[in-house]
Task: structure prediction
Amino acid sequence: MKPAAANRPSHWLVKSEPEAYAWADLVRDGRTAWTGVRNYQARIHLNTMQPGDAVLFYESVTTKAVVGLAQVTKSAFPDTTADEPGWVAVELKAGRALAKPVTLDQIKAEPTLSEIKLLRQGRLSVMSLTKAEFDRILALGNK
Result:
């Protein structure tokens, strides 16, 4: 039997409004504490993330596309922007931009991504991806 850690998700997608914190901001900063998440399901995901996990960066609202690849460098710690206890953040480090953004329309049109949480739980700001979903988005972004 595999240990529980072997079954935990290790591929993620985080969403941010580019006006609040864009991919370019993460690239400029090099790394950031991913703070401000106030959704209970997203908090569960943040608590599951571990250093070395791969993260796709999705710019919502105006861009509506996956634009970059990041990595978790520090697991969950208290979110200093929260007014109440229990909220957490992780540290993310910028990786590389995708050769071309993968738009929400492309994701919707891709049959292998029909079950992706981005389409089923569109308001969720931190979500797990299967390795197949993650790899497919990377492939679309590197064409």
Q: What stands out?
A: The beta strands are 11-16, 31-34, 54-59, 65-78, 88-103, 126-129. The longest strand covers residues 88-103.
